[in-house]
Amino acid sequence: MKNILVVEDERIIACDIRNSLERSGYNVSAIVAYGEYAIEKAEALEPDLILMDVMLKGQMNGIEAAEEIYSRFHIPVVYLTAYSDENTLAKAKHTQPFGYVLKPFDEAQLITTIEIAFSRHQNEIVMREALAKEKTLRQLKSQFVSKVSHEFRNPLSAIITSTELLVVHGAQINDNKKTEYLNHIKKAATHMTELLSDVLLVGQGEVGKVHFNPAPLNLEQFCQDLTEEIQLCTKNSNPIIFTVQGRCAKQAEDSTSTSNLRCLEKNPANTTTNLTSTKQATTQLPVLDEKLLQHILTNLLTNAVKYSPNGEPVKFDLFCLQEEAIFRIQDKGIGIPYTDQQELFNEFHRCRNVGKIPGNGLGLSIVKQYVELHGGDISFVSKEGVGTTFIVSMPFK
User: Fold this and answer.
1) CB 204 within 8 Å of CB 210
2) d(CA 299, CA 304)
3) 307: which DSSP letter?
4) What is the C-alpha separation between 360 and 358, in angstroms, rounded?
5) Poorest-confidence range of 66-80, 122-136, 276-290?
6) How far is it, in rounded angstroms, from Cα 182 to Cα 175?
7) What are the residue boundaries of the Response regulatory domain, all occurrences included (predicted)?
8) Could you tell me if residue 334 is left (phi over 0), alpha (psi between -120 and 50 degrees) or otherwise beta?
9) Which domains are delineated in the chain?
């Protein structure tokens, strides 16, 4: 039920308005006769609409009260007035009211004006929200482009500098130095390729173009294979200890019955029915998107290895519950400073203690997107200099 504040200094008219509104299903939250009181009641009661008489008792008229109310609280105002002169209407129009009702009022006109005011106000809310969202997106786009440009500038500079040195001083540079410059170029080009790939993934996520294709997945085997693959890529610099608790594949029993009806031609009444019942065990695998899950776990595991001292083990635990899987990845690395933890999943954010460890600050924002596509949740606990634990929970679709 919509709440309406009536601001009218003639008591009889105010009571007539109340009766008309209540007959039409509205609730009159209060009736006041002064503009100053109208502002107080608007703040205290937060009505959905205000019917405001133009001429009121006290020092503040209805136009002044309406202007302050709308500027402070964005509550729509419909004027009640017995005055139709150009000067009064011009002053009232300046406050951008949502309608006018001339006194003596007609009930049908009053209710129609209120309904139009509510509709217009709702449209304005939608428009304001859309404009605010568009402004935010423009700002984010501008910031994103600026950050991407900055991230590309450093490797491009390394490539240009190394190339110029080889071109200008190639004859005087020994083979070892040439190899060093070529390695700089290769490293910078690799970094740019990885950055471009991550930027494309972020862009796909922002426009809703990430393909989500959940399918039955042998989760234990998948995690085991992924662990071995990452160990090979990181040259076993940090052993990853993988454990499983619970069973992610459930056994289900399918029961089917078949009947064999034999009819005897000579004596139809003497029909016999042979029923054969068979039971077959089937395995129900959890349903997840393998490609997205691989990206999630690869990022978290490689980060755990990257930010840990050489030789320090990384723990990777899979907990299989009734309706969800929980992945826990623990390291004893450099940890995440407390001041960085609020912004950890923001694009391009890198912690202040990473030093020269390579990265572009996009990985965790992509991980969060992919976890949420599964309807899951990601959280972490970390202390600088002690280590970090990430926990990802994903429901089985």
Assistant:
1) yes
2) 9
3) T
4) 7
5) 276-290
6) 10
7) 3-118
8) alpha
9) 3-105 (3.40.50.2300), 142-205 (1.10.287.130), 215-250+283-395 (3.30.565.10)
Chain Cα centroid distance, residue 27: 37
How many angstroms separate the CA atoms of 239 and 227, rounded? 9
In the predicted model, is pLDDT for residue 173 greater than 60? yes
Q: For residue 189, what are the CA distances in angstroms to 13, 43, 77, 158, 295? A: 79, 60, 62, 9, 22
Give me the mean pLDDT over the 29-53 stretch: 93
pLDDT in tens, 184-227: 888 778 767 766 766 666 666 565 667 788 999 999 999 999 99
Phi/psi of residue 139, nearest 5 degrees: -65, -45
Tokens representing 114 are 């209120």
User: Among candidates 348, 350, 344, which has minimal Cα distance to 150?
Assistant: 348
Model confidence at 146, in pLDDT bands (50, 70, 90)?
low
**Residue 356 DSSP class:** T
Structural contact between residues 38 and 50, judged by C-beta atoms closer than 8 angstroms: yes
SS (H, E, C) 146-207: HHHHHHHHHHHHHHHHHHHHHHHHCCCCCHHHHHHHHHHHHHHHHHHHHHHHHHHHHHHHHC
Q: Where are the beta strands (DSSP E) in the chain?
A: 3-7, 27-32, 49-53, 77-81, 100-102, 215-216, 240-245, 250-262, 272-284, 287-288, 314-320, 324-331, 377-383, 387-395
Find the distance separating the first CA and the last CA of the chain, reported in whole Å: 39
Cβ of 143: how many Cβ atoms within 10 Å? 12
Q: Express the helix, strand and coil content of the chain in percent, nearest 5 each.
A: 50, 25, 30
Residue carrying the six token digits 């009947």: 259
292: part of which helix (H) or strand (E)? helix 290-306
CA distances from 278 to 164, 254, 255 (A): 77, 9, 6
- Taking only the tens place, the pLDDT of each residue in 220-239 is 999 999 999 989 878 778 99
Average pLDDT over residues 168-180: 84
Q: d(Cα 201, Cα 294) in Å, to the nearest integer?
A: 14
